[in-house]
């Protein structure tokens, strides 16, 4: 019996887990964030669970208060290169910013990861979002949103030209002519645009996939337009089913507007499944994590991610009005998602803190494997998702519960693969 | 009881096709190995089994010569070494990275990552790049001039040191106690502002096991020698003769003293390309085999450059036609003279000259394991170096000869370790990292 459609599930490899309380659990060693063995164990377990890919996010500086950073740790492309050696099938998606890197270097790095993994590389294309990132690269302020995406578009064009600068069999054809790389098969690109001048050719053979799987995580209008035109999968944070359906319909239509088959763009909302054998146990785990979050952390989210002035407010006081989205230059998607979560008439500070919990920009489902699978299936079958970018709430417990309880439930329902079939990540997402 | 011999350091200079110019053109060379990590894993495992100090990878960010003849194609070196970290446990991993075409924040993060992933085995070979083709991949028409590149390199290093120093050792543990990822009073912005870089910092990951990667550099020019003395811990010199090597080492030691670094803070490791045979006859046969596969263009280009004559199109057995005399030469007169002397004394054919000139300028030494070990020990005893950056003549044959014939000979003599000791790559070399607060050497006259 063939299965018409199965979910794509990426697993988000991040420090400690998707719940902000996870790093404070007893027994957590914060230096796991830079421990190779910790990452290797994670990757091998994720592969045994048959996830499509390991997704690693990254920033080029501290996006927010240094204390509560979510993007922290190793260079993700170097980390994924190491993980390529201890896995055989799972995809390896690295985040690289187009705002602070050069296309020649980035094209080479991603092609390298693709060669190292024999066709399992993915690129999460980000444009960066914080002044603190810009300030690590000689700029006082981050480029304006539309300029970052203009740069990203040309950046992507250059990387594609560099990957295409070598024919797939350039070595063989050149060898037949008695040379290493014949200019007929390895061509200069002579790109000259608004942002970049790059002569080329690339310094290494064409990557096995031709280009890595392209992923994008922006939820702003510039970001989604870029995604609809260019990428294979979009990772989006949506507060609820209705929001995700609307986004799904909109971006698929956009993709079609660019002449694409809408099925070629996969929509993967972020999701934190908090799974246990009983619903009570799952709720208990969530409460335990929630209790570990310092109140200051939530207040910082309201101040910095939403730009609300809450100084002097008590829990019973109403929140001040939300600023207009037009006034936000960075992480617009996150702003909109939080606004949707919190912007109800008369909401108090105390209620806002309760709603945020530790999951402030990712949807969460709490319950038994069957309950969580029901919810995921509902999203998947009613036009809200082609799969999910899964964050475990915590490690090791939350991650193991997903692998041991949730994945088998999805497999029983025929919603998720029991074995890998395709040999490249791109082919897996095209299937 | 004889005093224990001074042990030498041996890096594997790992490149696609080896150090002999015939490497890419041998019948057994499959160029597809360039992107085949399985191939490189096997080399790395063998290098570790031979107890080599480190794998050293050079490279460029563009085609430094026409792609037809360019052997320096390949994967990103740092990522390749990150991958090899997973299949090795002791050998050092030294990646080249250019300060001219990268950003210090990113470079500092990448090397800290390599050091974390390898648990203290990372090294950085600092280069400033040398070709217009590289510049033209980064929006520039021309390579920035020499002085500008070294000035940028100096500031680049200053920034990376500040970033590596931006975390206290317990920043994460204290952060967890306080309920945060990082304790904010254990991490410092660096607020660097210089002519080349403005970097706020801090780094985005905690200090790595070695704190700083082991720094390597190949100083040759005055500015390069100063830079190497100021910043590096390993210097891979290009000396060919022993007196040259001794002079180079003395020059470096003198600069170290002037700047206030200990003379033994730095290890000098000249390049060595051994051609090894069990007997002298076997070694000679191997060299003849290699020479016979030199691509004519490799020699013809060098002859054009040095003698200003073009021999392409002449039959292999033709004699060398007349060429300009010394007073008409504007290029490197020392090299011209060596070639001219060779022609006058040996009356070579075109092919013989190609085979002689193509490998010239590289320290290719032919011999039995005993002969090579004698030479290497002599260099170390004479103060010319602390070991060698060994670039096998070709892969895998020359590499196998190096690890299976030459290394065991050195081990028998007590000149090379039989086992790794505990500790980081820096502990193995016994070098001292430069301090970010050292004075800057007076610019050379």
From TrEMBL, chain A:
CDD domains linked to this entry: Nitrilotriacetate_monoxgenase
UniProt-recorded Gene Ontology molecular function terms: monooxygenase activity; oxidoreductase activity, acting on paired donors, with incorporation or reduction of molecular oxygen
UniProt keyword terms in alphabetical order: Flavoprotein, FMN, Monooxygenase, Oxidoreductase
Keyword Nucleus: no
Enzyme class: oxidoreductase
Residues that, per the record, bind FMN: 95, 145, 149, 219-220
E.C. number(s) listed in UniProt: 1.14.-.-
Luciferase-like domain ranges (all copies): 28-384
Domain of life per record: Bacteria
Record-stated family: Belongs to the NtaA/SnaA/DszA monooxygenase family.
Protein name (record): NtaA/DmoA family FMN-dependent monooxygenase
From TrEMBL, chain B:
EC number: 1.14.-.-
Pfam families assigned to the protein according to its UniProt record, in alphabetical order: Bac_luciferase
Domain Luciferase-like: from-to ranges: 35-383
Presence of keyword DNA-binding: no
GO molecular function ontology, one term from the record: oxidoreductase activity, acting on paired donors, with incorporation or reduction of molecular oxygen
Keywords associated with the record: Flavoprotein, FMN, Monooxygenase, Oxidoreductase
InterPro entries linked to this entry: Diverse_substr_monoxygenases, Luciferase-like_dom, Luciferase-like_sf, NTA_MOA
Positions annotated to bind FMN: 96, 146, 150, 221
PANTHER family reported in the protein's UniProt record: ALKANESULFONATE MONOOXYGENASE-RELATED, C2H2 FINGER DOMAIN TRANSCRIPTION FACTOR (EUROFUNG)-RELATED
Family: Belongs to the NtaA/SnaA/DszA monooxygenase family.
Protein name: NtaA/DmoA family FMN-dependent monooxygenase
Organism: Paracoccus limosus
């Amino acid at each position: 019996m063939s299965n018409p459609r199965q979910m794509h599930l990426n697993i988000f490899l991040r420090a400690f887990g998707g719940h902000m309380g996870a790093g404070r659990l007893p027994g957590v060693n914060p230096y796991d964030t830079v421990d190779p063995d910790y990452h290797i164990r994670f990757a091998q377990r994720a592969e045994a669970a048959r996830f499509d890919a390991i997704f690693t996010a990254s920033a080029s500086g501290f996006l927010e208060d240094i204390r509560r950073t979510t993007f922290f740790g190793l260079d993700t492309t170097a980390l994924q290169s190491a993980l390529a050696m201890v896995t055989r099938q799972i995809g390896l998606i690295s985040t690289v910013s187009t705002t602070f890197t050069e296309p020649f270097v980035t094209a080479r790095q991603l092609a390298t990861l693709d060669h190292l993994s024999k066709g399992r590389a993915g690129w999460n294309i980000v444009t960066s979002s914080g002044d603190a990132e810009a300030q690590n690269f000689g700029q006082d302020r981050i480029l304006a949103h539309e300029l970052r995406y203009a740069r990203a578009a040309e950046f992507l064009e250059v990387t594609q030209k560099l990957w295409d600068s070598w024919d797939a069999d350039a070595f063989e054809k050149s060898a037949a002519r008695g040379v290493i790389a014949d200019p007929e098969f390895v061509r200069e690109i002579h790109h000259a645009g608004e942002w970049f001048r790059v002569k080329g050719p690339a310094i290494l053979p064409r990557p096995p996939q031709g280009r890595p799987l392209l992923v994008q995580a922006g939820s702003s209008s510039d970001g989604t337009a870029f995604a609809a035109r260019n990428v294979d999968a979009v990772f989006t944070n949506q507060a609820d089913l209705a929001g995700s359906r609307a986004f799904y319909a909109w971006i698929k239509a956009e993709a079609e507007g660019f002449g694409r088959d809408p099925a070629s763009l996969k929509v993967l909302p972020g999701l934190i499944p908090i799974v246990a054998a009983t619903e009570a146990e799952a709720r208990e785990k969530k409460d335990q994590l929630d209790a570990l979050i310092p109140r200051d952390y939530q207040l910082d989210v309201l101040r910095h991610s939403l730009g609300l002035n809450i100084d002097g407010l008590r829990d019973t006081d109403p929140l001040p009005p939300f600023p207009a989205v037009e006034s936000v230059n960075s992480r617009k998607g996150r702003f909109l998602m939080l606004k949707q979560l919190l912007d109800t008439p008369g909401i108090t500070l105390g209620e806002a803190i309760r709603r945020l919990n530790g999951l402030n920009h990712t949807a969460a489902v709490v319950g038994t494997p069957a309950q969580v699978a029901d919810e995921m299936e509902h999203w998947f079958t009613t036009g809200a998702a082609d799969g999910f970018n899964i964050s475990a709430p915590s490690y090791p417990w939350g991650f193991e519960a997903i692998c041991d309880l949730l994945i088998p439930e999805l497999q029983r329902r025929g919603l998720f693969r029991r074995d890998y079939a395709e040999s490249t990540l791109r082919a897996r997402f095209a299937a | 009881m004889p005093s224990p011999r001074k042990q030498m350091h041996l890096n594997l200079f790992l490149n696609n096709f080896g150090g002999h110019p015939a490497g890419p053109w041998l019948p057994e060379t499959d160029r597809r190995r360039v992107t085949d990590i399985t191939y490189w894993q096997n080399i790395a495992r063998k290098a570790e089994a031979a107890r080599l100090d480190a794998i050293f990878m050079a490279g460029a960010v563009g085609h430094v010569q026409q792609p037809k003849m360019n052997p320096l194609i390949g994967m990103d070196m740092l990522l390749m070494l990150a991958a090899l970290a997973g299949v090795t446990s002791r050998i050092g991993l030294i990646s080249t990275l250019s300060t001219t075409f990268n950003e210090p924040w990113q470079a500092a993060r990448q090397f800290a990552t390599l050091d974390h992933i390898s648990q203290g085995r990372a090294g950085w070979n600092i280069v400033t790049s040398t070709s217009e083709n590289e510049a033209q991949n980064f929006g520039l028409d021309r390579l920035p001039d020499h002085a500008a590149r070294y000035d940028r390199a100096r500031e680049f290093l200053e920034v990376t040191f500040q970033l590596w120093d931006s975390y206290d050792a317990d920043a994460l543990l204290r952060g967890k106690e306080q309920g945060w990822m990082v304790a904010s009073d254990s991490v410092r912005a660096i607020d660097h502002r210089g002519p080349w870089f403005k970097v706020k910092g801090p780094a985005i990951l905690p200090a790595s096991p070695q704190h700083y990667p082991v720094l390597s550099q190949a100083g040759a020019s005055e500015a390069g020698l100063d830079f190497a003395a100021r910043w590096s811990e390993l210097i891979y010199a290009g000396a060919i003769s022993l007196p040259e090597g001794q002079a180079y080492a003395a020059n470096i030691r003198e600069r170290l003293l002037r700047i206030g670094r200990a003379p033994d803070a730095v290890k000098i490791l000249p390049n060595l390309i051994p051609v090894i045979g069990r007997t002298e006859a076997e070694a000679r046969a191997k060299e003849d085999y290699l020479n016979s596969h030199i691509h004519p263009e490799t020699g013809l280009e060098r002859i054009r450059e040095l003698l200003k004559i073009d021999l392409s199109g002449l039959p292999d057995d033709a004699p060398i036609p007349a060429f300009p005399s010394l007073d008409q030469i504007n290029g490197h007169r020392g090299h011209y003279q060596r070639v001219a002397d060779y022609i006058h004394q040996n009356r070579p054919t075109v092919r013989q000259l190609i085979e002689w000139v193509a490998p010239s300028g590289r320290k290719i030494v032919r011999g039995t394991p005993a002969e090579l070990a004698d030479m290497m020990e002599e260099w170390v005893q004479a103060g010319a170096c602390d070991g060698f950056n060994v670039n096998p003549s070709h892969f895998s044959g020359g590499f196998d000869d190096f690890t299976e014939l030459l290394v065991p000979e050195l081990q028998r003599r007590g000149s090379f370790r039989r086992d790794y000791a505990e500790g980081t790559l820096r502990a193995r070399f016994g070098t001292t990292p430069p301090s970010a607060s050292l004075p800057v050497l007076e610019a050379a006259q």
